[in-house]
Amino acid sequence: MWSSIMPVTKHLLIINLIVWLATFVFERTGVLDLYQWLGLHFWQGSDFNPAQFFTYMFMHGGFIHLFCNMFSLWMFGSLIEKALGSKRFLFYYISCGLGAALVQELVWQFTWQDMLAASVTGPAGSSVQEIINAINSGHADFTMDSFYNRMVTVGASGAVFGILLAFGMLFPNMPLYIIPFPFPIKAKWMVLGYGLLELFYGVSHTMPGVAHFAHLGGLIAGIIMILYWKYNGTLSRGNGFY
Fold it and tell me: Contact 59/159 with Cβ under 8 angstroms?
């Protein structure tokens, strides 16, 4: 089974596992907080570094988080790598991760004030600027910079959602059996369903703590690249399009 995995997919699985193990060991021993250095932070925080747009996609918050992403990468990665070629697949994977990071930063940019207001107990009707002035005056147990640095996301989910998108577009009619449905679902409907669910979760603030809009960012980046390659003739019907 291991020998049948395509090379880029295999190396991505290994790298993610190694980084997760390093994060786990360093966290337990107190040697280094990799989340601070490698997780994607809000751009206004002092912990932000542009390299985090790349490094965050190899970090994971826990074993279940890692397992779900790596299972999806293992399940669909080799098939998409065969269809795109290894070099293009790696470019596609990283680009979807970068697209997810960019969308997450944009969402933070437009929502940080609401997040700040929700995190501070103060007089009803206090404006955001009044809250900021109170924090800067020392009337809060945190600073604005520490607030910004709380905004961090990790995980390969954005890149993995891009892979799911590619699967749905390259092999739209391939039947999949998804628990708990007792009947097969075509790949195109699975991807559409995932996308709508992520949009609903993000807008409704359901399942807090999950970067739903980052997942959508991975889907958006993926569809842009797949459509571009399709219409410039790089990908043809032989790759599974209608």
Answer: no
